[in-house]
Design goal:
By secondary structure, this protein is of the alpha+beta class. The protein has two helices and ten strands; from the N terminus they run ααββββββββββ.
């Protein structure tokens, strides 16, 4: 191969590599800030699934909403409300024909670590969670170290 052809190949190769520069990636901080903004607000829990538990009897799916059983309308509702200051509240209730028969409440803190990981602390118990978040859906998955269950919560705004 003569010198002229070698230089042409070298120049073409250099042009190809320099023209294939990747676009500037979205920084992790931008994703974290965007997801913080998306998360703030009230999320209605649709379902909690516990699976792969150490004791198979602990595997369960809890669905939220209303259902009629033997002529009685039973509503099981739960919500997570995330505030911009990194705090959140959990509230849940069960009603029978409109009468409240049980409630549960709690509060804690939250922190988004990156595009897929966050920490939730509820009344001092913290878990590292894998999450997926869109404008109107939120899913978080964690492992319960005490019972070995993988717990997944799905919610919508």
């Amino acid at each position: 191969m003569n010198f002229k052809n070698l230089m042409l190949l070298f120049t073409l190769g250099l042009a190809i590599f320099s023209s294939c520069k990747k676009d500037d990636p979205v920084t992790v901080n931008n994703v974290v800030e965007e997801n913080k903004t998306k998360l703030v607000g009230t999320w209605n829990v649709n379902e909690i699934v516990d699976k792969d538990c150490n004791d198979p009897a602990d595997n369960e799916t809890q669905k939220f909403g209303c259902d009629t059983v033997d002529g009685v309308e039973i509503c099981t509702l739960a919500a997570l409300t995330f505030a911009a200051d990194g705090t959140y509240t959990f509230s849940g209730s069960v009603t029978e024909n409109g009468t409240v028969v049980g409630t549960e409440e709690g509060e804690g803190t939250w922190e988004i670590i990156d595009a897929t990981q966050m920490t939730l602390c509820l009344e001092g118990n913290c878990t590292n969670e894998t999450y997926m978040l869109t404008d109107n859906s939120f899913t978080t998955t964690s492992t319960d170290t005490e019972f070995g269950c993988t717990s997944t919560i799905t919610a919508t705004k």
